[in-house]
Write a structure and sequence with these properties.
GO molecular function: hexosyltransferase activity
Order of helices and strands: EEEEHEHHEHHEHEHEHEHHHHH
Bound molecules: uridine-5'-diphosphate
Helix content: 40-55%
Structural class: alpha/beta
CATH architecture: 3-Layer(aba) Sandwich
Shape: globular
Keywords: Glycosyltransferase, Transferase
Number of strands: 10
Number of domains: 1
Largest sheet: 6 strands, parallel
CATH superfamily: AF0625-like
CATH topology: Rossmann fold
Pfam family, one: Glyco_tran_WecG
Strand content: 15-25%
Organism: Natranaerobius trueperi
InterPro entries: WecG_TagA_CpsF (IPR004629)
């Protein structure tokens, strides 16, 4: 059931308030709210697979041009306010939210939850050596976790991957195919999946495996992680430039 409530957005199932920035949905959630939803989805073993995606200025800008991505985002159960830019823009437009819910931190909290609930996790995505290193690191950091399975993100036989995920009996699927690939993949195949919840985690396996460093604290504190990423990886320039465009749009155009 979805009820319209004006500037405050819409109230979704699970009592989540959904806001919109230029027609792009973002949920006004905290870590606690997301974890209480995943806890009940897992414990109730609901047959519906729930999807969690992370929202940042780059994705908002991409979804303005990419209707398929916009549709996929609208189908998600939770869209976390991952980027500093979306938190700033939402507050500027009068929405109330506590702060960021970052994809990487939420992933760690979900790994901890999976360990506490004794349910399995499946990791999909990244290059072969990256996903292997990430799985080793997760096992080291969460010694009682059950990794039900994993696979790199460069596959052709989608049905085989889905069957592997389902037969692993994992409850949580972390999907790291980058954006918008992971959002399109998950919304297309969600009805065939039997996991309770899947989260799109972008490049998080690169960070967990140590292949890519998370932006240093100074860049995080100055809210310049995006700028740090462009400088350290100039291939990201085109994507990174969507952020200043987003800022201009928020400042000068109405939503
Ligand atoms: N990736 C993948 N399969 C693909 C394309 C990308 O597994 O077909 C992985 C890639 O190896 C990397 C991640 O997806 O680990 C993309 O990272 P990026 O930083 O671009 O993602 P973002 O967080 O920006 O969406």
């Amino acid at each position: 059931m979805i009820i319209l409530i004006g500037i405050w957005g819409v109230i979704m199932n699970d009592n989540i308030k959904r806001a919109f920035l230029f027609d792009c949905p973002i949920d006004l959630v905290t870590y606690e709210k997301v974890l209480s939803c995943t806890d009940s989805w897992i414990l109730n073993n609901d047959p519906k697979t729930r999807l969690i995606f992370a929202q940042n200025p780059e994705k908002v800008m991409t979804s303005l041009e990419n209707k398929e991505l916009n549709k996929a985002l609208n189908q998600a159960d939770i869209l976390i306010p991952d980027g500093n830019g979306v938190v700033w823009a939402l507050k500027k437009q009068g929405y109330k939210l506590e702060g960021r819910v970052t994809g990487i931190d939420l992933m760690h909290k979900l790994l901890k939850q999976a360990q506490q609930l004794s349910v399995g996790v499946y990791i999909l995505g990244g290059k072969e050596h990256v996903v292997k290193k990430a799985v080793d690191k997760i096992k080291e950091d969460y010694p009682n976790i059950t990794i039900s399975g994993y696979h790199n993100g460069y596959f052709h036989d989608t049905e085989k991957i889905i069957s592997d995920i389902n037969s692993s009996k994992a409850s949580i699927l972390f999907t790291a195919l980058g954006s918008p690939k992971q959002e399109l993949f998950l919304t297309e195949h969600v009805n065939k999946l039997s996991v309770n919840v899947s989260m799109g985690i972008g490049g998080s396996l690169d960070v967990i495996s140590g292949e890519v460093k998370r932006a240093p604290k100074w860049a995080q504190n100055l809210k310049l992680e995006w700028f740090y990423r462009i400088v350290t990886d100039p291939k990201r320039m085109k994507r990174g430039l969507k952020i200043p465009k987003f800022i201009v749009k928020v400042l000068f155009k109405s939503h």
